[in-house]
Amino acid sequence: RRPRIKKMVVVFAALVTPLLSTFAPAPRSTQQAQLGTTRHVGSLPHVVRHPPARSALDPALVEASTVSGAAALGGSLDPALAEASAASGAATLGGIGGLLSNPALLSNPAIAAAGVGLVVVATAVRDYLEAPLGAPYPANAKGYDPAAADRFYRARLPKVAARLLRLGWLTFGFNAKLALDFAAYKRAGSPEGEPWPNEADRGREALALATQLGPTFIKLAQALSIRTDLIPEAYALELRQLQDAVPPFPSTQAKEILASELGLPGGAAALASTFRSLSTEPLAAASIGQVYRGTLHDGRTVAVKVQRPAILDEIGLDLYLLRLLTPLQTRISNAVNRLPTYDADIASAQALVDEWGRGFVAETDYLYEADNTESFAEAMARRGLGAVTSPAVVRELSSSRVLVTEWVDGTRLDLDASPDVPRLCGVAINAYLTMLLDTGVLHCDPHPGNLLRTTDGKLCILDWGMTLGVPQDLQYSLIEFIAHVNAEDYAAMPDDFVRLGFTPPEQLERVRASNLTEGLSFVLRQLSQGGGGKKLQARVRDEWREQYDPGGLLSKEELRAKVREGFYAQARTQLEADGVEGASVMDVQNVMEKMQQRNRELFQVPPYILYVARAFSTLEGIGLSSNEDYSIVSEAFPYLSKRLLTDDSPRAKAALRSMVYGAEDKDASNATPNLSKVLSMGDGFTSYSSATAAVPQAAAPPAAGKAASPAPADAAPAA
Question: Which residue has the higher pLDDT, 221 or 107?
């Protein structure tokens, strides 16, 4: 009986493993083979070996995948089981003939017939899942349409389920390890300032996971990679590789796309008619495309960005799933915090997903990116900002899937050791404030791979696929708000909240009577001291100590409990002031529910703030990388000074009065000017002019060890 049972196990593995391999990720060794190896020259990872993507029929991959699947089923892998598994995998991917050669199956015709049927089904399922999916909307700046996506994917539910299953398969192990690490950290007493166990390993795993999950998650990882105040340093160091070293797709495929977009009937072989030379492999790759270096017949050196095939298919499906899962995620998050979930919570979260989705889909239209690139350079030149620029577009060679720009020699701003880098960080802040508050087109993807110090000492901003249009009315509303913050004119802020879209107009009087402006002023005072999220948290903890434990006798947990008690007492007082009956005797859960409902009525997050926050949090992260006390609030003051001193519009003049006299309704006839503020504004104006008007004549070359290098992949043109 034992030989018969063993034979049945072998047959079962041979039949089931192909089905498992439909959803299973490739083993680590296979992933590394696909990634290839890189070496660093200056600040750019140059590709040494990126083998073409191996076919699903590649016997080595078939064997690796099926054997790993069988090992997952059986723990220790019996040689006979491995042999049968590999044979069955090859049959699934390559045809039925290989499977029929397996002696274990041929010995029993009934099982062999069942096996053939199962293999045919498995092959059909795999072919269906790997067939091109298509996109629910066009690749352009106005293409994103959640309603169209819903109709499109409802008709393709098996593919949606397969993607969801794969995401769950890939992330389950990582999340389980994080849970175990957290449990170990708690058992150790949650030592303050100490990392969780295995942090370095988890960072490497997070990098591999983001790469496996695809372009949508690579974008998210890129944004997080410079925020060491939000994620552990070990994670950030690993994820930074995604800024310009994402695994590329095969160059043979890229060059066929390039030839097709250029209208060359001879395919890739005809590229010599356009390019005197073109690099064999991409110099860098990122989430949406990859960059080659070429030379045109007129002698110009160019960067050639080629979009990944079917990229919108992947992005569209992931955005649909993110939107689909947002209600669940919102409910889980609120449940963890012991809060109820309202329809408004879900609607707000989905609006943020939609806003991000619109920008991400717009990035897949390279002609839109070309327009933005040219418009920015022209706008900066008109305003005399000679220290900042963007690459020149080669229009005649660009299309919706190919972008060609003149080559930019330089190094990444965050990796350059030149002495003028701090000045260029200031240039970056002023350039982004000019975009937000003047030109009305904000670059929304300023990760370090997109900010270069050129060899002549300028700041070159790359990758203009994701931008935000800022109407003039919103620009002045932001200027007024910033001026009121600087002047500490808190009485004017409720009106600012309404104009900026944070507060519904009908809630204005309630906001005036609330303590929201006090809380905001506290946060802004902390931010103005610099140091990012980490130092802000440290200062808040110090204030807690001073207020609740001046003698330093409480443990960390006891202090938190004291703070919570204080918060609940303040919340009850505020609810009583709002006329909520029985607030003084409410339990903690009811207090939290009432406060959440109150704040939801008074305060909302407008979708545009997602892009503004992303842009300026990225710039803050770059500043913090070179100066741990960097303050983005302070860095914004020179631009504000220049704008208020030169703008003759009535709204700008009112904001200037607020800065100088403390309120918009005051002037020289009824108030005394704040002379220190006036002097500070004069210094700020001078600082702005010297930082942005021109590049110093003797600009330093890139620092030693940071040789001039081509633009990264999310760069000129960005990938």
Answer: 221
